[in-house]
Amino acid sequence: MNWLTQTLGSAIGKKLLMAITGLSFIGFLAAHLAGNLTIYGGKDAFNSYAEHLHALGPLLTVAELGLLTFALIHVLTGALLFYQNWRARPTRYAVDRSSGGRSIGSRTMPYTGVIILAFVIFHLINFSFVDKRHITIFELVASAFQNPLYVVAYVAAMVVVALHVSHGFWSLFQTLGANHPKYMPAITIIGLGLSLVFAIGFGFIPVYILFIA
Amino acid sequence: MTKTINITLKIWRQKGPEAKGRLETANAANISTDMSFLEMLDVVNEKLTVDGKEPIAFESDCREGICGSCGCVVNGEAHGPEKGTSLCQLHMRHFNDGDTIVIEPWRARAFPIIKDLIVDRAALDDLIRAGGYISVNTGSAPDANTLPVPQRDAELAFDAAACIGCGACIAACPNASAMLFVGAKVSHMALLPQGRPEAAKRALSMVGKMDDLAFGNCSNHKECEAVCPKEISITNIARLNREYIKAGFGSAEK
Amino acid sequence: MSLNANIPLGPLTDKWDQHRFKLKLVNPANKRKYDILVVGTGLAGASAAASLAELGYNVKAFTYHDSPRRAHSIAAQGGINAAKNYTNEGDSIWRLFYDTIKGGDFRSREANVYRLAQVSNNIIDQCTAQGVPFAREYGGLLANRSFGGAQVSRTFYARGQTGQQLLIGAYSAMMRQVALGKVELLTRREMLDVVVSNGRAQGIVVRNMVTGELETYAGHAVLLCTGGYGNVFYLSTNAMNCNVTATYRAYRRGAYFANPCFTQIHPTCIPVHGTYQSKLTLMSESLRNDGRVWVPKQAGDKRAPSEIPESERDYYLERKYPSFGNLVPRDVASRNAKEQCDMGKGVGETGLAVYLDFRDAIQRDGRDTIEKKYGNLFQMYEKITADNPYEMPMMIYPAVHYTMGGLWVDYNLMSSVDGLFVLGEANFSDHGANRLGASALMQGLADGYFVIPYTIGGYLNTVSWDPVTAEGPAFSQTVKEVDEKIQRLLSVNGTRTVDDFHRELGLIMWDYCGMSRKDEGLEKARGMIQDLREEFWNDVRVPGADRDLNQSLEKAGRVADFLEFSELMIIDALQRRESCGGHFNEGFQTEENEALRDDENFSHVAAWEFAGDGAEPVFHKEPLVFENVELATRSYK
């Protein structure tokens, strides 16, 4: 299996790990968002979605473990890449100006990544690692978002996620080698669209609960 | 129209690889706007020499944008502000009277500074040595027309092969990655039928060498493409990725 | 020593085959016992290093660049000729041979040129197999274009960057041998002398340009692939670092210098625009296919080109050479531009330019067509001059481009010093008095890929394969002399910079030994050069230290050699009492101001032997024998 570690450990291999795990997170986000949208159906719809999800039982655990593994890979590889990239230029430029390649998303990738990690932990503590025997998920969410600070934190986090995805989405296709003159423009647009969908889709929920529901 | 301007330069001076360098100020007075950037540096050097100082060491040779010898970071941009232009083809008419220009050498762990603005780019030769060739001994080639190459493939191969090996892509990459350089070479040869027999070996070996040489990793910032004097596209990096994935997982090559 | 070119006997078409058969082979097991030093890694050097290493020889390759890929072969734009006859126009080895001999104004060796044409086809095959992305037709086969006034399309090209692609091919072939351990690559090394003892080249002295140390290397044979000397004119289309030092140092060690006065002036370059200018940029000759060359009829007419009506324009090439028009060969086009400017009809700020106008072509074919053909060239022109050639005519002027002269070599490419071989532009061998377009690349690669691998074996069979070391009195003496020169340069500590001297020398050469020459001018220039040389050694200022990266010192050594070599060019120009190709002496011209050859007395190669500082060089004559072509007067009327 030496060839495998060698391939995955190379500059391209590490990016490949980032791309594949990243893609799975985007899939996860899409599924998560689809589930979350049931909140607009009201309390019962949302609770029933949660129940259905938990009824999956071991399947859910497998998925969660999978996500956890992927998250570890994504975070650790990302950290390694960040360190190596930082090391690759021991002396920085006195003047550092973009010639037009970098975007806000690409520039901030490692930093938005760290914020997202922090947010995920915060989010899990809020909604996942809580005793849910005496409270429905809707009540949990509704009560959390009564606090405007939570709303601000969540909305901000979603903007950060959007930034991360805005670069991550097209970039993962590029890393997978899927850069084609016919399809790349569409992929770029879809990436930007997706980040908007995530930002608005997720970000509006706390606002909706605070002001409307 | 020709006019003359006065410029203040802040130039990186460093006596040797181990010495500590710093930005020093020099004045470039009465510079014709028809001058090239390097001719402006020539004028500054003539003055320094006559004044009994040591001129600024910088590399250049063909001064027509093809040999790849020249290159500095000008006000934070590799080869300066003009798109698709190497430093020797940058003209002073793109600057204004009274401007301050900061000139720094390429900076990357893989490109140690030798003196002033001159860096050691031997790592690029090391990369080519790792597989940037097609193994064909002199004399063993078949007639050139026995192997047709679709015109489009030949054109794409040329686009990649146009690389002048200046190192600007590495200098401009926030991660000092050599992916555009390696991507261009791997693409040039992968696109041609002549290069296919060694494609897998080449991709694995050149990428392995790239890691050994302490280049950074690609984060798809696209700065390389933006500064490349030959405007080589990052589609070549995607092709390298494909070739590498195929080689790593699909071929028997190790 | 007699000048024996070692041309094989027999019919022209069989000479090369017969010769290869007669050359003794080196046993493959013995090849690894021979060390070969290759100086320069352009087309000739890189191809030679790669091919010799493939055969099993141990090669050391030296370049003063940071990478072999920077050699100036890279800047060649147009293409490379070969007698493939892919276009079915009736081309053949014989036709390519004849065109090249005629283009060289009948001042080159038949046998060499024929061999060049013979191997031209192998070059294309080799380069294609290496992955050179030549232009192709829709069907996937190789495309050709016509070039340099040839009547057949035999030029293979890779957009306007053919030299770059061919060099990368040769460079990558060499890097493969570096990876295999057969070539040791020594970059940032400048050769400063050849070590000769017992009449044989034993090795070289190089300066490590990073540390400044002098290093010595020994070899069983030394190959000089160090390019031409066009930078003796200061301004030329050559790269900044091109110089004569390697070949001139070899000359001082006994290698004869042949035809140094044969220099090629290329007609379509961007004109000089200021004293600060460091080099000239060539615009591809292909522009003359559609552009019309003109000047105002009235001398001193300073109106903008658009304000000069048709009736007041002189399309002088079309007027004087109705059948070839704007497509006359390089030397003719260049001389005529100079003539117009000398009459005060030159245009632009300096008056040293003529128009190359695309107005009519754009009107005829449409802007799109012209853009497709020349878009990148127009862009390059605009980048440099800030003028838009779609709207206003280009301004062009001739510039020094190539040097046909070089170290004298025999048919085996060996100089008059045993074991010292010379390849590519550095030798004099194949282009006579004028080189045709798209044949420099051909010659460099022919020498490296297909000539030297065989001929060097013939020589090595005559020397022992005992290991050689860079020791002994010859090496230490040569190093001492090199070091003394460096110390002398550093100790003058005068007031003028090296570039300042170089610029002045360039002007002298351009004015008196350039496109057109006169006896009085040449004599005058000789004196001026001697004075300038003396001033140089009394007043040059070379800052910095010897054991350091010191670009001023590098330049100073080269200019010091140019200051001596330029005089040899003048001596050679004075000796040649005729006009031919790149050498136009105003005293020898027809009534219509065309070059007047003297085949009876000057159908020879002039090879000069160094006779010591201050002594007149010794003239050796190699008569040129034409058995297969009839000497004709070139006419383009």
How do the helices and strands line up, and which of them pair or pack?
The complex is a heterotrimer of chains A (213), B (254) and C (637).
Chain A: H1 2-9, H2 11-36, H3 43-55, H4 58-87, H5 104-127, H6 137-144, H7 148-175, H8 184-212
Helix pairs in contact in A: 1-2, 2-4, 2-7, 2-8, 4-5, 5-7, 7-8
Chain B: E1 4-13, E2 22-32, H1 37-50, E3 73-74, E4 77-78, E5 100-104, E6 113-115, E7 118-119, H2 122-129, H3 151-161, H4 168-172, H5 179-190, H6 199-212, H7 223-227, H8 235-250
Parallel strand pairs in B: 1-5
Antiparallel strand pairs in B: 1-2, 3-4, 3-5, 6-7
Chain C: H1 15-22, H2 28-31, E1 35-39, H3 43-55, E2 58-62, E3 80-81, H4 93-103, H5 110-130, E4 155-156, H6 162-179, E5 183-186, E6 189-197, E7 200-208, E8 214-218, E9 221-224, H7 245-252, E10 257-258, E11 263-269, E12 292-296, E13 313-314, H8 316-320, H9 330-342, E14 354-357, H10 359-365, H11 367-385, E15 394-403, E16 406-407, E17 420-422, H12 440-460, H13 473-492, H14 498-513, H15 519-539, H16 551-575, H17 599-602, E18 604-609, E19 618-623
Parallel strand pairs in C: 1-2, 1-9, 2-5, 9-17
Antiparallel strand pairs in C: 3-4, 6-7, 7-8, 10-16, 10-18, 11-15, 12-13, 12-14, 14-15, 18-19
Q: Describe it for me?
A:
The complex is a heterotrimer of chains A (213), B (254) and C (637). Chain A is mainly alpha-helical and 213 residues long. Chain A is built from 8 helices and no strands. In chain A, α5 crosses α7. The N and C termini of chain A lie far apart (55 Å). Chain B has 254 residues and is of the alpha+beta class. Helices cover 33% and strands 14% of the residues of chain B. Chain B contains 8 helices and 7 strands; from the N terminus they run ββαβββββααααααα. In chain B, the strands form 2 sheets. A 5-stranded mixed β-sheet of chain B has the order 2-1-5-3-4. In chain B, strands 6-7 form a two-stranded antiparallel ribbon. In chain B, a hairpin with an 8-residue loop joins β1 and β2. Chain C is of the alpha+beta class and 637 residues long. In chain C, 37% of the residues lie in helices and 14% in strands. A 5-stranded parallel β-sheet of chain C has the order 5-2-1-9-17. In chain C, strands 11-15-14-12-13 form a 5-stranded antiparallel β-sheet. Chain C has a 4-stranded antiparallel β-sheet with strand order 16-10-18-19. Classes of the chains: A mainly alpha (213), B alpha+beta (254), C alpha+beta (637). Chains in contact: A-B, B-C. Chains B and C meet through α1, α2 and α3 of B and α3, α5, α6, α11 and α12 of C.
